[in-house]
Amino acid sequence: MKIQLAGPSYQQRSLPFDAQRSVNLFPVPDDYGSDKVSLYSAPGLKLFGTVGTGPIRGEFTAANGRAFAVSGAKLYELNGDGTGTDRGTFDFNTGIVSIEENGFQLAICDGQSIYILTYATNAFAKVTDPDLPKISTITFLDGYFIGNKSNSGQFYISALYDGLSWNALDFATAESSPDDLLRVYNALGQLWLLGKYTSEVYTNTGASSFPFERISGAKMEVGIMSPHTAVSIDNSLVWVGQDRNGVGIVYRANGFTPKRISTTPIEIKLQAVTDYTQLRAYTYQEDGHFFYVITGGSLETSLVFDLTTQLWHERAYLNEMGLFEQHLGCCYTFAFNKHLVGSRVDGKLYEQSLDFYSDDGMPLCRERTYTHQLDELKRIRYNTLVIGCETGVGLQSGQGVDPVIMLQLSRDGARTWSNWFTASLGKVGQYLTKVSFRRLGIAQQMTFKIRITDPVKVTITGSWLE
Going by fewer Cβ within 10 Å, which terminus of the chain is more open, N or C? Predict the structure, then answer.
């Protein structure tokens, strides 16, 4: 009998109700294969280089191909060999930064001030124009850097293609609601103003007095929970929202209408975050899958939405105590034809790829908790569990020569678990290895959890009970 294996992270408040979870595994559909859905391993990490002492606060690749990272209190230009060139120093060494460019200058906002790197001269300077107030975030649109004034509904624009020059009169106020403006963002060529409880969208009308005006009807009764969770991906804007009724729903803009894409279990995790300001998100695309990654704050793991399948999974780092933590990567850029993520703990930059099977030499733990197995609470004898895997993936030497898959059982709704049982995934070339576990016992309800930590390719295609 075939049983459901592949699925999202969907762990409810009541574990006996639903305890299923996918950590470092994500569902991949195949409408033309014998198995409609399989589980693939999340990408692993390989050290690309180290710049400064970290943590990595932000990354950016410019249109001219130059790549940058903010590590601690330093701005580094990244080189293809993983080294970095010091380009400037900030006043503070912590906090998330927003980074934009106008083609001639790179602008970095640290939540307090704006810093400008001029490409032609590599001159780095903090904007000291007295007309510029304290700015929280920055974006770029139609030749202007745009920043939102802290603790207000106002946003300011720079001089045309000059982030060093600002005019005290070049500002406007998001007027649809009196709440504070938390994030300015250029999405699809329009200026999105995301407030605490409401949002609105402006466009460039070319007016000589002030070029940006609100689009009629482009008002939303949803704000943003954390300013650094707003990202554009797949021709849309995605963010973690809040309104006057609560927080923690993830939205994707459908035109000017916010569409909920989070699930109740994901929202439970987001609503438990103690410091919303430290939440952040990034996006990337690999193998046609568009991923939206939420990390930071007090999340146990990083939460990932696959826009291609519309399913959530988790990504995590397995620490030395054997517990899951947030994924090591906290920010992202694509440079030198590589997916580069910056470390949340130090100055390391990692190349991320589906072809890597460890977290820079540390175990990449892939874990799937199945849906509960039961039949009207009848006592059932579980003779054999067969797991469809890509086998014969063992390495030539070292850890992973004879890779194993581990299994735990729960008979009480995933509240307590058995010891681990193991089965071989097959040494290199042993493609016909059968992965099975026998004599699992009798229970009214049975829950299976599988785990693979060896640094090998992992693809899980299905499960059967005999």
Answer: N
